Fold:
Amino acid sequence: MNTIKTLWLIPARGSSKGIPHKNIRLFCGKPLVCRAAEQALECSCPGDEILVSTDSTEIKEAAESCGIKIPFLRPASLATDSASSYSVIMHALEAYESQGIVFSRVVLLQPTSPLRNVGDINNALDLWTPGIDMVVSVCEARTNPYYNGFETGDEGFLHVSKGDGHITRRQDAPKVWEYNGAVYVMTVESLKKGPMSLFKKILPSPMPAERSVDLDTPLDWVIAETICSQKQ
Structure:
């Protein structure tokens, strides 16, 4: 019996400045939001809930065409550029708790990571335990502060950000990770104490660069769709 109840949360607001209407735009023949919804359906367990958090009836209809039911819309106040992911998560948790539904963890799948696969999600789930705050997907950072990341000192001259500056090959530098935005597995008890910026116990779930493209600009879309079409 599954004792871990999970909220699968897919944030997809209607407005988007970088790529207009991106959440319902076809990506390799499928609405972008549906790619995340179908992955949640494949990875979820009986008793879990899947929610596309949106303020848009168009996005709601697109997501429900994939076979999920969206019981409520996100208020307009949480669909602005200034609304935080944390406020969206807490709105969803509180809405379910008002119905007596309580979760152990939240899995956040952003539609803007369309090259993420089910294996990436399951890898993050396997790392999660109730004793940590979050598992987050990462990729190796393009800029390494021990090798090619620089700062300016008091006199305005560049110096390497970390270390003594004697590392001359990237492979000799400590690995540095960056969040890629694809998968977040968060403990509800930790979320209730405050936002993710306060988390201390965070485990990385590495993903390769070719699956870590985040859709923020039209160029990102072209790059990601090109990679996707080559794999089909």
